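Curious: why these numbers?
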Amino acid sequence: MFDIKPDKNEILRYMGHSNQQVEDGIYNLIDECIEEIKSVIKFRYTYKIFDVQLGIRDDVSCIELLGTNVVFKGNDIYEHLRDCRKCAVMAVTLGIEVDKLIRTMQSEDMLKAFVLDSCATEFIEKYCDVVENEIRVMAQRERCGINFRFSPGYGDFPIETQRDIERILETIKRIGLTVTASSIMLPRKSVTAVIGFTKDVTLMPGKSSCDICSLRNECLFRKGGTTCARGRVYKV
């Protein structure tokens, strides 16, 4: 369907490597795991475009999705969308077979299961890039730019928002994605995210998700020289 080329450096990053020397055997194992993950992926996605407006709930700034009863709370998502009048809400999954493959391997070879999990994380991010690019094209048709994707659980954007996204995107029916009462997505290798549309199409300094995250000064990822996201910077 799509010619996805996983980045082995990203896979190593998910495995916790930070510029250490990597044995050839690990690279061979990564290659093996990439092929096994590719063989079972059932990539599915859905998204919707919503008009948004700034609001106040309980004396706190928030983002209202017009036409729904969903309110995005948190300073970080507010900063992400404050200059936008529309946003895309997206959900992407690799399918339950990826989860089954990793879970089966956990009882046989924990190292391989760990590498499989890291490879699957890279694949879901690559597929999110595919969906984001599709959304970018839609925004351009409306003479808009987009900012980056921002997911529930980043900064102070409540992880519980996953359940609202499940409902408004009808992810159970459309892509087989469910969210548990504790806000865990099933299949596990799934992502939900919000991308803002902006009318300001002039070049301005790019921002990453770190720039607006309220936890950036105490983030263990940043202290280790990396991020919880992929570090992309977009200009709109």
User: Anything to note?
Assistant: The first strand starts at residue 44 and ends at 57.
